[in-house]
Amino acid sequence: MKRAAYSNTISDFLKESKESILGKLTSNHSNRSLEELQIKAWEQQIAILKDQLRGINGNVYFEFAIPRMGKKVDNIIIIGEVIFVVEFKVGSDSYNKNSQEQVIDYTLDLQNFHEGSHSAKLIPVLVATNAGVVENNISEIQKLNHALKCNKVELKKNLAIFIDKSSYHVDSEYWENSIYKPTPTIIEAAKALYRGHKVEEISRSDAGAINLTKTAACLNGIIEKSKREEKKSICFVTGVPGAGKTLAGLNIANERMKANEAEHAVFLSGNGPLVDVLREALARDEVDRVKKTGQSITKKKAAIKANAFIQNIHHFRDDNLKSEKAPVEKVVVFDEAQRAWDKHQASSFMRRKKGIEDFDMSEPDFLIDVMDRHDDWCVIICLIGGGQEINTGEAGLEEWVNVFKNKYLNWDVYYSDLIIASKSYIQLDQQNWLKEKAQAKKELHLDVSIRSFRSERLSEFIYELLELNFERSKFLYQEIKAEFPLVITRDLSKAKTWVKDNAKGSERIGLIASSGARRLRPLGIYVKNEISPANWFLNDALDVRSSYFLEEVATEFDIQGLEIDWSIVAWGANFYLKEGQWKHQNFKGSKWQNINKKEDKEYLKNAYRVLLTRSRQGFVIYIPQGSKIDKTRKPEFYDETYEYMKRLGIKELM
């Protein structure tokens, strides 16, 4: 895939006319209605590079695509063994902090996701054309903590600092054709899809992207067939952990929205924080994108569009309680559909919160009933996950199948073949019903993980750690420790310093803890305080409400389904080791009470599983010292857990 709008050797670039280069840039640019401002910026870049690259051998690239971020680098310059990632700020007289972070982010993206750049020497460069001369910290630039800062006449001089006279040269042909394997966060993915990028552009360019593309093609085929034949259909999509089920769901909802607005395709999730964060991210991104074209759009208008695309499943349910008409949505995607409420939970909620005494349906039953109101066709897509249940009353896939088995025999049912190959989804009689009445589609199973670029084995390590399988945990830790930084400490200030020192560019850091870790409060960690997930996840490092300040703490409910780069996981006294076994506690009034119900114990363990798998690049586990005078924070609530981590070989921050 050609990633640059223009590429050439430096020598041929110097010979080529400005008009020819501009013509290629314009014809290869995705936005054909280019603003005069962009063309003028290219003209200045061309003039500066023609002046500053004289006498240098290498390769130059303009508008090099960074798919995961949905953006393009102004220039890549390869000279000898060095790859310079260059961001121009034409007309600027200062080295803006955001611009520095931007070019560092681009550089990190190449280092982490572009195969040809993994072991290359990468240098981020910010050219503020009209700025003054500044002193650069060379070692910090080489560590990618700082960007190289220079103006339009100092570029050549500054590039020369990093160019060795060694015989090694980057193979530009290999580099250009190297595979790009991004693993975007769900926020990045949603924004890129919403802008019009295809799933294969923002996902790993190997089996993972192929897998997602095949699933999308299968779902699109079912939707078109349902429309053509005026049928109602449901699809059950499964996937291995980290396979990108949510990404697949966002992708199909976005594709249908772009293909035919009359379908009113919608992505529904019961995860309130996820919905809030994605909606806000899409609205902000839309405002920024439109602004760059010289036009304007109000935040409110952008939010209305985003809110129609991504909805809270409970709001969708409540809206359709008020009316018996068919909803406008013809295609609905239910994320984590197995978490829809069973009849007891749904009926109890309706009675307590809505005053509806005679509600006698499970959430799957009601949601299917709503879509069945359509006279002609509709499609429900259920994304089925598992392993991180943290709420009571979840119905599971069984309830969805039972509803069709007992009430809606006129629907076409499509399912991933893994559902009948594994006992973990449904019982044997339901498997037999699916075999007889429904259609298996192998494309509805995502069997390739696209998870964490640092270590795909992290989730396995966390599983074994929580299951107290010591030898297996120790072995897995040795496997991941070189690629995935993980440390422990009993000093919160050291934990904060560690994440700040490790984060580069705009990489996000944050403080997270269990919602039940109530006695972290004396240490300044208030898990009961409500946060705004959108502000926590999206606001920049200047905003005290953002995760960067390490003041507001996100719990498992805030962060489930989302990720950050570097985190502090604060360990509470609600889940601790005693004589080699986990102890489960709930803080009531002024003291701890034992949790005895097996289901509730599992929910608590899963809460810690969520917290320990939210970091993309590394994390520190902070386990307090405890207090000899405060009975709610006894040292015994923490000490054995800390010793367990040490015995696994996890490095201590001293």
Average pLDDT level: 90
Q: What is the total domain count?
A: 3
Radius of gyration: 27 Å
The SS-based structural class is alpha/beta
The CATH topology of the largest domain is Rossmann fold
What does this structure look like?
- There is one protein chain.
- The protein is an alpha/beta fold and 654 residues long.
- It has 3 domains: 4-176, no CATH class; 186-281 and 308-409, Rossmann fold (3-Layer(aba) Sandwich); 458-652, no CATH class.
- Helix content is 41%, strand content 18%.
- It has 26 helices and 23 strands.
- A hairpin with a 4-residue loop joins strand 2 (59-66) and strand 3.
- Helix 10 crosses helix 11.
- The model has no long low-confidence stretch (mean pLDDT 90).
Concise account of the structure shown:
The protein is an alpha/beta fold and 654 residues long. It has 26 helices and 23 strands.
Defining key terms:
alpha/beta; globular; six-stranded mixed sheet; eight-stranded parallel sheet; 654 residues; 3 domains; 26 helices; Rossmann fold
